[in-house]
Specification:
By secondary structure, the protein is of the alpha+beta class. It folds into 3 domains: about 1-125, Immunoglobulin-like; about 130-210, no CATH class; about 225-315. The chain has helices at about 130-150, 150-165, 170-175, 185-190, 200-210, 215-225, 230-240, 245-255, 265-270, 280-285, 290-300; strands at about 1-5, 15-25, 30-35, 45-50, 75-80, 85-90, 105-115, 115-120, 125. Helix 5 packs parallel to helix 7 (about 230-240). The chain is globular and about 65 Å long.
């Protein structure tokens, strides 16, 4: 197994492609999984980078919460690699290394298969600096790519490349992306890459209060270190009548916070026949059993939605 970097003239903020070349040198074919090139889809691959003093470069997934990153899909397609055949997979080093600074980096790749781990010989990657003005222009160009993207793959790529800049200016774009099909990539970008400051946390909170919680919004708030008061305030606002699209996410968030202020809205949602957020609301009520909440749960047992099962109520 070997790795290489085919990109030249790399600068801080660029996507750094590392290509794995896996060759079957055994006497029989073996199955391998073909899946997403990004961190949570590339279950067979691992990368480590070291700076010029051979110190490990921090893993961006260790930044923020939940520790180890926000879970994503690891579904893949199983393929067969015949004897003597090779397969190549290209992955962005940025998913494994926080490449905030210029320098020369030593990169090692690991491939996990058939119960064993194979490690490559190291390769060297040089990353040049990017001035503040150049970074501003680069971020603007990537934001244009996001705006003009027509497919999920293009939107995911634009969002991830914005995150790799470690710059504060992509935050508004990533907040918009949270509400679409690039939402998972945007949540990872906000939590693990963008600068987390008091001002950025307040901006995220204001956005969620104004537009309602986005999918993955609770994890973003936790990841950037929002206070419990800020998170409960966002949940409360997102449970209101004019934020119906946010009810499932907000009711899920309410399961983590037993705040009595949320109970009237949770009860109203739980008693709304045909509402998709009913299950999350019931779970939140059950997690914080106030007198009014228990009374509501009893009413639901007597007259449940025929299309909805509430197994937790019967425990």
């Amino acid at each position: 197994m070997a790795i290489r970097c085919d990109a030249d003239d790399l600068r801080v903020g660029d996507k750094v492609p590392i290509t794995f070349v896996v060759t079957n040198v055994g006497g029989a074919s073996f199955a391998y999984g073909s899946s997403s090139p990004y961190r949570f889809g590339a279950v067979s691959f691992d990368l480590k980078a070291f700076d010029e003093l051979q110190r490990p470069v921090i893993d961006p997934q260790s930044i923020g919460f939940p520790a180890g990153g926000i879970a994503g899909s690891i579904l893949g397609t199983e393929l067969a690699l015949g004897t003597g055949d090779s397969v190549e997979e290209t992955l962005p080093l940025n998913e494994w290394a926080a490449l905030r600074q210029p320098g020369t980096f030593t990169v090692r790749g690991m491939y996990h298969a058939a119960g064993a781990t194979f490690e490559s010989e190291p390769v060297t990657v040089s990353i040049a600096p990017r001035s503040r003005s150049d970074m501003r222009e680069y971020v603007a160009a990537l934001q244009d790519q996001w705006t003009t993207a027509t497919t999920k793959a293009e939107r995911d790529l634009a969002v991830r490349r914005l995150a790799y800049t470690f710059d504060e200016r992509p935050l508004p774009t990533l907040l918009d992306a949270l509400r679409g099909d690039a939402g998972f990539a945007a949540a990872q970008g906000i939590v693990h890459y963008l600068p987390i400051t008091t001002q950025s946390v307040e901006r995220i909170v204001r956005d969620f209060e104004n537009r309602g919680l986005a999918p993955n919004g609770v994890f973003v708030l936790l990841g950037v270190g929002a206070s419990e008061a800020q998170i409960v305030g966002v949940i409360d606002r997102s449970l209101q009548d004019d934020r119906r699209s946010s009810w499932p996410t907000a009711a899920f968030g309410a399961t983590l916070y037993g705040d009595d202020r949320l109970m009237p809205r949770l009860i109203a949602i739980a008693e709304t026949i045909g509402e998709p957020a009913r299950i999350q609301a019931v779970q939140a009520i059950a997690n914080n059993r106030t007198d009014e909440g228990v009374a509501a749960l009893r009413r639901l047992l007597d007259d449940p939605d025929p299309d909805t099962d509430f197994p937790d109520l019967r425990r």
